[in-house]
């Protein structure tokens, strides 16, 4: 995030914090990753620590692709810390997610 993005993100996250009487609230955050790496990094750790401290949340990483099925990775975050060993990989595609047949996506 740039310095000018941070205050905007803070306002958005603050308005979606859990509170009494609130039925809908943020449980985490996501970002896309178009680089060669497909894992959480220090930016994700910084966002978790700053905006989700003291809570259990999720982090969704999406690797979009125009030529193959996009990929998703879901991570558990505890007390603002991304847990890399909690990574769950899946095809980020409505057709693959809704199908009854097991996917060969990761083969």
Question: Can you describe what's shown?
Answer:
The protein is α+β, with helices and mostly antiparallel strands and 107 residues long. The chain is 24% helix and 30% strand. The chain has helices spanning 5-15, 42-51, 94-98, and strands spanning 28-32, 56-63, 71-78, 81-91. Strands 1-2-3-4 form a four-stranded mixed sheet. The longest helix has 11 residues, at 5-15. It starts with a helix and ends in a 9-residue tail after the last helix.
Distance between the termini: 34 Å
The biggest sheet amounts to: 4 strands, mixed
Number of helices: 3
Structural class: alpha+beta
Mean pLDDT, all residues: 82
Percentage of residues in strands: 25-35%
Shape: globular
- Are there runs of 5+ residues with pLDDT below 50, and where? none
**CA gyration radius, whole angstroms:** 15 Å
List the helices and strands and how they pair.
Elements: H1 5-15, E1 28-32, H2 42-51, E2 56-63, E3 71-78, E4 81-91, H3 94-98
Parallel strand pairs: 1-2
Antiparallel strand pairs: 2-3, 3-4
Brief overview:
With 107 residues, this protein is an alpha+beta fold. Helices cover 24% and strands 30% of the residues. The chain is built from three helices and four strands, in the order αβαβββα.
Top keywords for this entry?
107 residues; alpha+beta; four-stranded mixed sheet; 24% helix
